[in-house]
Amino acid sequence: MTHPSPLLPQLLPPRRAQQLLWRALGPGDETRTILGDLAEDFAQISDRESAAKARRFYWREAVLLSLSLKGQRALSELAADADRHTLETTMKSAFSLPAIAQDTRYALRGLRMELRLYLFSMMIIGLGIGATTAVYSVMSPLMLRPLPFDQPDRLAWVANDGEGGMSGVTSRTSNLRDFRALNKSFDSLTGYFAFFEQGSTNLVGNGEPEKLIGVGVAQNFLDVLRVAPLVGRNFVDEEGVWDGRPAVILSHGFWQRRFASDRGIVGTAITLDSTPHEVVGVLPPSFDFAVIFKPSTRVDFLRPFAISDETDQWGNTLSMIGRLKPDATIPSAQADLDRIIASLQQDDPERWGLGAVVTGLQRQVSGPYRSAMWLLAAAAAAVMLIVCVNLSNLLLSKGPKRAKEMAVRSALGAPRHRLLRQLLIESLLLAVGGGVIGLALAIAITRAVASANAISIPLLKTVSVDGGALLFSMAVALVTGLVIGIVPALQASTGNVAAAFGGSSRGASASRRSNRLREALVVAEVALACVLLVLGGLLLESFQQLLDVELGFQPRELVTWKIKSARDFETLTELNAHSDELIRNIVALPGVEAAGLTDAVPLGTNRNWSIPKPGKEGEDQEMLGVFPHIIDSRYIQAMQIPLRSGRHFTVDDTVDRDRVVMFNESAAEVLYPGQDPIGRTVQLFDGEATIVGIVADVRHVSLESDSGAEMYLPYSQSWNFSSLELVVRSSLPVDVLAPSVGAAIQREDPTIPIGHYQSLTQVVDRSTSPRRFTLLLLSAFAATALLLAALGIYGVLSYSVTERTREIGIRMALGESAGSVLWRVLAKTMTLAGLGIGLGAMASFAVGRSVASLLYGVEPTDPATFTLMAFVLLLVACLAGYFPALRASRTQTVIALQAQ
Amino acid sequence: MAKVGEFELLVILSILRQDDQPYANRVRQDLEQNAGRRVTRGALYRTLSRLRDKGYVDWQMEASEIPERGGHPMRRLNVTKAGTAAAQASRTVLLDFFEGLGPLADGG
Questions:
Q1: Which of B41, B43, B64 minimises the CB distance to A36?
Q2: B72–chain A nearest CA distance, Å
Q3: What is the ipTM of this complex?
Q4: Domain ranges of chain A
Q5: Which of A20, A34, A37, A63 to mutate to test the interface with B (most CBs of B within 10 A)?
Q6: Which domains, from first to last, does chain B contain?
Q7: If you count Cβ atoms within 10 Å of the first and of the last residue's Cβ in chain A, which end, N or C, has fewer?
Q8: What is the H or E stretch that residue B24 is in?
Q9: Count of CB contacts below 8 A, A vs B?
Q10: Are strands A301-304 and A214-217 parallel, antiparallel or unpaired?
C-alpha cells in the first residue's frame, strides 16, 4: 500500500457522507470501525485512481450502507414496539425536513423532466402576476391608499357650481370668508389660488436666474391639511394679509435642488421678482403640492394668498378645501352650505359666483381617472383569470399521466398526505417562480410609469410595487395550481388505481370529461380575450378620433418659452416696446419662420370672462362666458390659426387707439347669429371694443371638449395678464433652436430665465397622456389575452390530436384524406373560437356601456370595432389550430397504430 | 446447534484464513479475490452481526496504526470454538453429500 507523503495533507473522505453514516448507523464503536474500513478503501482508491472516483465511491457506499443497515435496525425496532414505531415514522415522514426536502427534490426533478411545460406555465403566471401587480400598484396611491394627510377622509373639496371649466370649480374669496363664518360642518376651511400656473416668478441671485412656480395659499392651508413644515414655521398673520410681509415656504424638492437641503436658508431672504421674500419654512417630502393637486406641473414654493376684498375682486380664483367636523358628512356639509348660500343670496340678490358642491378630496383628486383605472383593474383581473384558465388547461393536460403516477406511488405505499404535499410543493414552486418573473415585470412597469414625466395623472410619481397586490396575485396563482393539481392526487388516493391506468388513451369517459372541461375553459378564455380586444379597439378608435381632431392651430414645429422679465415696467407701452424688440430679434434668427406672444398657449390653462350678449339690456341681459386670450399682433399667424374674416391685429392697435377684439367662430355665432360681426362692438368690463377679425375655433381646454367661445385682445391694449409666453415657429430641431432663441432672449433681457421651453407637440401629447396611458396598458393586456387564448387553443387541440393519434390513424387507413383530417381539426378550432367570440361579443356589448365615458367619437357598440376584433381573434385562433391540424393530417397509419 | 448459511460459512473460513490481520476489510478482499464473489459491505457487516448473535464469531476493538483509517479503531475478528465446530459440521455435511457424485465431486 502506498502511503501519502507526510508533507501532503491527507485527502479526507467527504464529511457530509461521514455525517450521514454517523446519523444513520448511530454513534458507537461499531460505527467507528465501519468508518475506518471505508476510509481505508477511500484512501486506496484515491491513491490508485483519482480523488473524484474515491469520493464517488465513498458516497455510494455510505448511502448503501445507511440504507441496508438502517433498514435492518428499523425492522428490529418495529418488532420491539410496533405502535410507537408507526406513530414515530408517520410523524417523521410527514413533518421532517428531510422528507420535505425529498419531495422538493422530486418536484424539481419533475420540473426538469417537463421543463418546457413548467417554464411556460411559470412565464404565463409571471405575466399575469406582473400585469395585475403593476396595475394595482399604479391604482393604489391614486384610489386605494389614503392621501398623504392626517385623517384624509375628513378632507372635502368645495367646488363652485361644479360646471364648466376652472371657473366653475373655483370660488371667490368672499365665499370662503362667509362659509368660514357661517358653517356648522367644517372644523376649518381653506383654499389656494387655482390659476397659479399662469403666473411665474423669477428667482434672481443664489446662482442662475430661474423661473419658479409658486402657489398662493390661504394662511391656514397647511393647518387644514395638517401638514407641518419640515423646517421652520407656517405663515403668520402679518404675512397672510393683503400686501403683507413677503414670505415663502419652499417645496422639499426645490429646497434640495436649489439649496442642497441647507437648513440655514430658513430665516434668510430670497429675491423673487426683485422683492426679497423671507423663507419661513420648508415642506416635508411627503407633501408635494403638484403631485396631488396639479400633476405634470411642479410647484417650487407656497406663498400666502390673502382672503380679502382685494382678491375678491379677481372673481372665481380659489380652490376650496375643508376639514369636516367629526360628526359631519359630505351630504350634511352640502346641506349646510346650501342653506348658507340661500340666505346669502337672499340678503344680496346681486351677489354672483355663489355656489358650493362638496365632494371628498380623494374623490376629487382621483375623479377624472377613476373609470380608466377601474377599467384597467378589470382588464388586469381578466388577464389574471385567463392566466389561471390557461394554467388549469396545462395542468389538466397532465392530469391522466399524473393520476397514473400517483396511483403507482399510492400502490407502492406512499401515504396520501405525502402525495398531497408533493403536489402542494409543485404548485408552490410554480407560484414562486411565476412570482419572481411577475415581480421583475411589475418593477419594470412601475418604474417606467413613475418616471414618465409626460403623463399627467396625480400621484403617479409615488407609484411603487405594491406588496399586497403582489402577494394577492401570487396567492391566486397558487390556489389555481393547487386546485387543479390536487384533483389527480385525490383520484389516486381514493384507491381507484385501475381507473387511472385504464383511462389513458382509448377514449375512456373520464378522459372525455376532462376534454370537455378543457374545451369549456378555452371558450371562456377566448371570450375574455374578445372582451379585452373589443375594449382595446374602442379605446384605440377613440384615440385615433382624438388625434384627428381639428385643433385649430398647427402644433408641429412650434416651441414655447415662458418669458417673464424681472424688470418693472411703468407703463404698458414700455412693456410692449421691450417685448416687441425681443420678438424682432428672434424673428431675425436663421431658421425662425414666425414668432408671437400670448398669455396662455392652448391646452395649458383655463380662464373665463363674462361679456354681455348684444341686443338685450337690463333685466333680460344675457351673458356669454368667453375664454380671453391676450396676444400680440403676430401670434395668430405664428400659430397658423386660420383667419375666417376681417383682419389680424397690427402694431398700430396701440393703447391710445380704438380698442379692438377678435373672436372665434363659435363666439361670433352666439354674439351675432347670421350676421357679419366685423365692425360691430362688444362691451368688455373695462370699456367697449370693436370686432376686427374672426378666427377658427381652437381647442384650448382639452382635445375632447369643444373650444367654446374665445376672445382675443391685443396685449398692447390690455394689461390683463400675469405673464407671457413666446411661441416660435421653426423647422429646426428643438435642441438646435433652443440655444439660439435663448441667447437672443438673454441678449435683450438677461433676467429672463430661458431653461423652460417645450414644443407644442409635447403639450398636445401631455393632454392626451392619461388616455394614451390607459390605451397602452389596455392594449398590452388585450395582446397578452390574445396570445394566451391562442396558446390555450393550441394546447387543447394539440393534446386532443395526440390523444387521438390512433383514431386518426384508423380513419386514414380506412380512406379518410389528409385534407379532411386537417379540415376536421380546423373546424373544431372554429367551433371553439366561434363560441368564445359569440360569448365575448355579448359580454363586450354589456361592458361597453360602462366605459362610454372613456370613449371619444365612437359608440361603445361600434360595429366596425366588433367585427374587426372578432376577425382578428378568429384569425389568430385559426393559426393556433393550424399546426395541430397539420400534424394530425400527417399522421402515418402504421406508426399511429404501433404507438398504441 | 444453529446452522450456518453458505455465505456465513465463507465468512467464518475467511476469518480463519487471515493469519495476522483478521479484519473486515481483509475478509472482504479475500472473499472478492479468492471466492469470486461481489461482497457488499452492508451484507458483510450484517453477516458479522448475525454470526456474533449466534455465538460463532466475536471481536475486540483495537486502535489502528494505519494512517488512512483516520484514527478509527478496527475490530479484530476471531472465530469461537462453536464457530469452528459449526464450520467443521458444515464441511462434513457437504462432503457427505458430495460423496459418490463422481466427476462432480472431483471438481470436473
A1: B64
A2: 5
A3: 0.88
A4: 15-80, 161-355, 527-548+762-900, 565-752
A5: A37
A6: 6-99 (1.10.10.10)
A7: N
A8: helix B24-34
A9: 65
A10: parallel
